[in-house]
Design brief:
The protein is globular. Helices cover 12% and strands 17% of the residues. It has helices spanning 36-39, 66-75, 89-93, and strands at residues 4-6, 13-15, 117-123, 130-135, 140-145, 155-156.
């Protein structure tokens, strides 16, 4: 068992999901960012408790969103680091395993990965109420409404 995986090709370090606690594979989040440089003028949805009570305490206030999740993981210093963030669309697509489906990711390095929709930090330029996702069932990437509840896997390094 490990908490992080380094991609030796990109140099990125990725969060590995768990079956319990803060990084539980079944927790979902709305897309939310107060950073005007990435949110396209639409911060997204603050969320409700869709993450098993893991963000109950202040300042998170049971708001399960991507910004709060990254802040909580940084406060916990996952793998000794506090610079975790939601990946860009391009970064998340680097995890696609062309020879695998359901999920289309190498589960030897990324166990506990749901065959589902995962957030990127990339706002959809044509409509800032949407952000890019990657669907790990078949590797499709599309834009979904920021208020939807989807999964998130954090990354560090790169950019």
């Amino acid at each position: 068992d490990w908490a992080c995986t380094k991609d030796n090709v990109t140099g990125l370090i990725w969060e590995v999901k768990t079956t319990s606690g803060l990084r539980n594979m079944n927790h979902t989040y709305t897309w939310y960012s107060t950073n005007a440089a990435t949110n396209g003028g639409n911060a997204g949805g603050v969320g409700t408790d869709t993450c098993g009570g893991s963000l109950v305490a202040a300042p998170y206030n049971n708001q399960c969103n991507t910004q709060n999740y990254a802040a909580a993981v940084n406060a916990a210093t996952l793998c000794g680091a506090s610079d975790w963030r939601v990946p860009t669309r391009k970064e998340l697509l680097t995890l696609m395993h062309a020879g695998a489906t359901n999920p289309s990711i190498d589960t030897a390095y990324f166990p506990n990965t749901n065959t589902a929709t995962w957030w990127t930090n990339s706002t959809y330029v044509a409509d800032p109420a949407y952000a890019w996702i990657v669907y790990f069932g078949n590797g499709v990437s599309d834009a979904y409404g920021k208020s939807g509840g989807y999964f998130v896997r954090l990354v560090r390094g790169g950019q």
